[in-house]
Amino acid sequence: MSDAKVRRRFHPGTTVEDLKAYMGPFADRLGYKFNTDAEFVDDVLAAELEILEQTGDVFCPCRVRTGDPKEDVKIICPCIPFHRDEFAAVKKCWCGLFILKDVEDGSELFGVIEEPSGEVEVPVFRVEDLPPGQIRHVKVGKHDVAVARVGDEFFALSNICRHAFAPLADGFMDGYFAICPWHGWRYDVRDGTTDHPDADVRTFPVSVRDGHVFVTVRVGR
Ligand code: SF4
Ligand code: FES
Q1: Cβ–Cβ < 8 Å for 187, 156
Q2: Which end of the chain has fewer surrounding CB within 10 Å, N or C?
Q3: What is the chain's mean pLDDT, rounded?
């Protein structure tokens, strides 16, 4: 492929160390770290550099590109935000380049793992990424979730207003209430209730650990 067709996000001569410096802090915010096996990490990143040379971007070395840009953007490394629930369920990204921060030995996470099912705690962001009194949207697998912070408490509820489907995280917080941005319906973030009949929204369990916020969802069957 000629240089003219390549969308260069990285300067020519990008190295494995450059990729580590670029990806590491981003993965850290998402609750992940590089695999503890440094040789394996270098091998995967070297493979990404080869792909970068061929395609102009760091597509995943363990996935097949479809040619559809909308699909393939979901496998540009680090692809963690697109696959939060799947990765949290197996404690690693598909390739094993990234593992959850609390995993001590990443070498046990190489290779294919059975398709998980059941409840999984998914890291969504760091505590300091959401100031008190704020609400923000996160995509957790197929769920659109609004995570709200009241003081030092965190809550998660469906992001979709039951009135006319506005994104609740585009609204604002009033104490324990998320106020819909479109017509002002109020949802109690503690239990998803609203004072409109049959219009409560779903809530999700939230936990905070080691400076990270986790939302629990179901994966698989
Ligand atoms: S699966 Fe891992 S190595 Fe592959 S793109 Fe996603 S984060 Fe990168
Ligand atoms: S869409 Fe939420 S109040 Fe109308």
Answers
A1: no
A2: C
A3: 90
Range of the domain at 50: 3-103
Q: Is the CB of 214 under 6 A from ligand 1?
A: no
Same domain, 73 and 130: no
Whether 182 lines ligand 2, by a CB cut-off of 6 Å, is: yes
* Ligand 2 touching residue 157 (CB < 6 A): no
Residue 146 CA to ligand 2 center (angstroms) comes to 15
Q: pLDDT of 45-99, one tens digit each?
A: 999 999 999 888 899 999 999 999 889 999 999 999 999 999 999 899 999 999 9
Residue of 62, 65, 90 best suited for mutating to test ligand 1, as the one with most atoms within 8 Å of CB: 62
The reported pTM is 0.80
Buried b (16+ CB within 10 A) or exposed e, 88-123: bbbbbbbbbbbbbbebeebeebeeeeeeeeeebbbb
Same domain, 49 and 130: no
Query: Measured in Å, how far apart are the chain's first and last C-alpha atoms?
Result: 42
Phi then psi for residue 194, to 5 deg, are: -135, 165
Distance of alpha carbon 199 from alpha carbon 221, whole angstroms: 27
